[in-house]
Amino acid sequence: MCGSHVLWTMMFSFVIVTSTFFSLSHQQQQQPPLDPSEQNALYDVLHSLNPTIPWRNLFPDDLCLSAPHGVVCDFPTHQNETPHVVELSFGYVSDETPNPPCSLNATLNNPLISTSFPYLRKLFFYNCFNKTLPPPLSLPSSLEELVFINNPSFVAALDTFLQNLTSLRRLILIGNSFHGEVPFYIGGFLNLEEVTLSRNNLSGKIPASLGLLRKNLKVLDLSGNNLSQCLPHSLGNLSQLLKLDLSFNAFGCRIPENLRGFNRFGNFGVPLFLGEIPTLKEVYLSGNFLSGVIPDIWENLGGVEKLGFSEMGLVGNIPASMGVHLKKLSYIGLDNNNLDGSVPYGLLQYASEINLENNKLSGRVELFSTTTKVGQKVKLAGNKGLCVDNKVVGGGVLGQQQLKACKKTDVPDAVVFSGTSSLLLRFYSLAGVVVVVFFVFIFTGF
C-alpha cells in the first residue's frame, strides 16, 4: 500500500494540470457536466474507501473530465445528453492499473450503488475490505461485470447479493466471504461468459440450472468452497466451456464398497459428462472424494491442456486412451489416489509436468528428452512397482525420488499400442507363429 501512495502523490500534480486542460476542452464543447447526484455520491465512495486522500481538493471539477484512474464515464454522442459513471474500479493492483487505493479501514458510507450509479456497467473491488464489514450493497441491474477479489471482510449471502443482475457477463468473486448456496436463478443470466466463485464459503449443491448457460459460458470455477452432493449431468450441456474448476470442495457420490469391483457404468468417479464438452482445455476436480474409476471418455477431448485429478480416491487403471488422444496435454495431476496398472505411453510423451505420486502404479517408465529436461516436474515417487530407464535415474532429480532402475528383463508394459500399430503387432505375432509351424512341418515330415 505504501508504494501505491507514493504513486498517487506523483500523479496528483499531473492530474491537477491536466484537469485544467480538460475543463477548458469541456467549456469549448459545451458538454453537460456529470449529474450532481452522481458527482457527490462518487466523492462519498472515494472518501469512505480512503479518507486519507483529499479527493474534493484534488479533483474539484467535473469527475467525468478529471477523475482518478478507475472512474470511467460514458460520453453521449448528442451534445445535450448528460454523461454518467459506467465503471468503478477500486483497490491498487499495480502501476499499470493504478486504481484508487483502499485504506486499511475501508468501508462504504453509501451502499446504495443502484440508485447512486444507475448506469454502472462494471464494479471492481480488490483488497479493499480486510477489517471493516461494509453494509449490504444494492447493485444496479445494468451491471455487466462484477469483480470482488480478496475482500475477506465482505460477508454476504450470494443468493440475495446477485438478485436482478440479469445483464451480467463476468461474475468474479474470489477470496471473499460469500456464503450460502449458488442460486438456482443464475441459470437465467444467459449472457454469462465467466462464473468464478472460488475461495468463498459457499455450500450446498451445484444447481442443475447452470446447464442453461450453454451458449456463452466459457469459464466455470467454483473451487475452494464447501459444495457437496453430486455433480449435475447438465454441466455437459456447456458446449462452449474452456475451463472447469471444481477442485477442493466436498463433492461425494463415492462408490459403495460392495460395488467397487463393478463400477464400469460411470455413476461414480470422474463424471461422464466431461466427454460431452469437446471445447474443454482445463479440468480440475482435485480434492473431491468422488472415488470410482477414470472413464474412457477422452476421444473427443483432444484439446485438453491441463488436467487435475489429485486426491480423489480414484481406483483402477489409467485409461490407455488418455495417452493416445491427449496430445496437447501440458499438465496432469493424478497423485494421491489408488490407481494401479501401467502408465500409458503418451502421457509421458506429451505432458511436460506430470504428478503420479503415491499410487500403486507398476511397470516400466520411459522418459523422453522433452520430459527429462523438466525432470523436477516429473513426480513418480510412492509407486513401488515403477521402474525407470537407467539413463535418466542416476543421481538426478528422479534418483532423489528413490525410483529403481529397470533391468533388461523388465517387460516394458507401459508402452501401449493403438489403432494400426496394434493391428500390425498382432499380425506380426501371428505371422511368427505360422513361420514356426511351417519349419516344424518341414523338418519333422508332418
Automatic annotation (TrEMBL):
Protein name, UniProt field: Leucine-rich repeat-containing N-terminal plant-type domain-containing protein
Residue ranges crossing the lipid bilayer per the database entry: 6-24, 423-443
Keyword ATP-binding: yes
Lineage: Eukaryota, Viridiplantae, Streptophyta, Embryophyta, Tracheophyta
Pfam families for this protein: LRR_1 (PF00560)
Key words, A-Z: ATP-binding, Glycoprotein, Leucine-rich repeat, Membrane, Nucleotide-binding, Repeat, Transmembrane, Transmembrane helix
GO molecular function list: ATP binding; protein kinase activity
